[in-house]
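Render Protein transport protein Sec61 subunit beta in 3D.
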Amino acid sequence: MALGGGGPQRGTAAANAANLRRRKTAGGGGAAGGAGGTMLQFYTDDSPGLKISPNVVLVMSIGFIAFVAILHVMGKLYFVRREA
């Protein structure tokens, strides 16, 4: 900040009050109880729903990609046979 600026000097009571006010409003809606309402809630044991390991998700994704590729190949072969 420039010399003689509009803000209070560091270390004064006004500066401390301004910093405290900034800290309170800048936090947003953070929960006091740890990870309640954050992205971490999805990765805890307390979260509701089906528990799937990352390896299962990876295998299912690769399987889905392979299934779609096979359907594309079968569709091309079926289309070629139908024209002949």
